[in-house]
Specification:
Elements (H helix, E strand, L loop, with lengths): L4 E2 L2 E2 L3 E2 L6 E2 L3 E6 L2 E7 L11 H4 L2 H5 L6 E2 L11 E2 L7 E2 L5 E9 L5 E9 L14 E2 L6 E3 L3 E4 L9 E2 L2 E4 L10 E4 L10 E5 L13 E7 L2 E6 L1 E3 L2 E6 L3 E7 L18 E4 L8 E8 L2 E3 L2 E3 L3 E5 L8 E10 L4 E9 L1
Antiparallel strand pairs: 1-9, 2-7, 3-4, 5-6, 5-10, 6-8, 10-11, 12-15, 13-14, 14-18, 16-17, 17-23, 18-22, 19-20, 19-23, 21-22, 24-28, 25-26, 25-29, 27-28, 29-30
Length: 337
Amino acid sequence: MGSDKISFAIGATDRFSNSTNPNGIYSARILVDSILQSAFILDRIGYYETRYLNAQIDYRYKFNGGAYLQHLSPLPGDRSTVYNTPDNDGLLHFTDNEIHNIRIEVRDAKRNLSVLEFSVQYEPGIQTSQVYFSNQFLPENVNVFESEAFEVFTSEYSIYDTVNIAHTVSEVAAVNAISPLNIFCSAAIPIHDSVTIRIKPNVEIAEEDKKKVIIKSVAGNRTVIKKTQWQHDWLAAKFRQFGSFQAFIDNEPPTINTPQADLTRATRIVFSPKDNFKTIKKFRAELDGQWLRFTNDKGLSHIYRFDEKFPRGEHQLTVMIEDEAGNITTKTWSVRR
């Protein structure tokens, strides 16, 4: 190998006796020449630590369609408590060109052990290809990227590892867009704490439209819409992803389907609100002025199954929906059950 500092990730599953279901492993550790370098145990993970899963797997590999690979050494920005690195950062550091024995031990919750052993040797003469970037975001640092009309700010908790900055601007002709499409870094880079995105519009905006501005962000198959705050001539919103960012005016109210007037044979009511940016922020239904509890099917349909709160007879049913930009639609119908 041509690097004097390396780490490993493993793909490992556990199966119960007489079961084919794959399960996660309980613990793993890596040793160099019988000396422990790093270990993790997945036994007590606090609720507020669960997002660190994105740091403990090869996120880029998984994002691009690969399997789950678990890091045996923590990334620099991983502040969870699952890793134990006795003497250093958990990476494998080599100062000579001797052959070193690597041992990886994996256990399940019953302490059943599987072992992988192999050897590595550092050869200084081998050159590994590297691309150097003049601008980078560093973990455990507040980072700032500034251009003429696009800015990014991180907290010290936002990223897990060094990020090479890449920013491109595309003049995409999108309806109601008030900025170009800004593509910032790779969507395959995980974000822990939110990053602040600031965009300077490239068109004049009417005063009545300033409260209806959103930023649309796309990262792979994930689209996030956020209402913006005005900071002088700039728009600001927080996101937990890198990818593309573009500002829009959204003054189009959401729409909702009309229920049957005669519900005497029905067992439920289903509303499927629609929005031009596919975001319904609020949904509220009232029967004769009293709130009705609808369930929500993954943000798509809102469903109410009839119970004692919706008695037989004639009623006034009112539904209010609001999108992320603050556009509101309210409808009232006379229904009979």
